[in-house]
Amino acid sequence: MSTFDYAITRTLDAPADKVWQAWTIADDYGKWASAEEVVLDVRPGGAWSSVMVLPDGTRIPLSGSYVEVVENKRLVMGMDVPGRDEPVLMNLELAADGEATKITLSQTFDTAEDRDQAEQGSNFLLDSLTAHLAA
User: Fold this and answer.
1) Three-state SS for 2?
2) Which family does the record claim for this protein (predicted)?
């Protein structure tokens, strides 16, 4: 069976601990990720949930758990997907680069369509995160 994956790498103008906080503190995450009702239990096996609010007002409930947590360096998050037995994993890698941080988001999917949709979503998230950190 073939798999379809993507990896997006960007350099953010903020230290790694600030980028980490943006992903792991519920209030911070909600601000930049257009999410409400954010609950983050950031530890291996801990659950997360949020409601993503799209620009048109559509609300999408999301949930999952944390698989791997290495503070200021690596988060592996599983996302529950209706109709799938196993969660879809998203890998987030942070690498300090002076006062900047290199961030890489990556995922693997069964179909090109799912990959393309997730990659578009990840680019949107990274655009929002970049704007949040610059503010």
Assistant:
1) coil
2) Belongs to the AHA1 family.
Tens digits of per-residue pLDDT, 53-97? 988 999 999 999 999 999 999 999 999 988 888 899 999 999 999
Q: Which CATH class is domain 4-134?
A: alpha beta
User: Which residues are bridge partners to 9 per DSSP?
Assistant: 104
Q: Which amino acid is at 112?
A: A
Question: What's the burial of 105, exposed, middle or buried (CB within 10 Å: 0-12/13-18/19+)?
Answer: buried
Provide the greatest CA pair distance for the chain: 44
- Average pLDDT taken over every residue of the chain: 94
How far is residue 80's CA from residue 18's CA, in Å, rounded to a whole number?
Answer: 27
Report d(CA 19, CA 13) in Å as an integer: 9
pLDDT of residue 14: 96
Report pLDDT digits (tens) over 15-60. Answer: 999 999 999 999 999 999 999 999 999 999 999 999 999 889 999 9
Residue carrying structure tokens 């999301």 = 62
User: Could you give phi then psi for residue 81, rounded to 5 degrees?
Assistant: -125, 125
The two tokens of residue 70 are: 């290495």
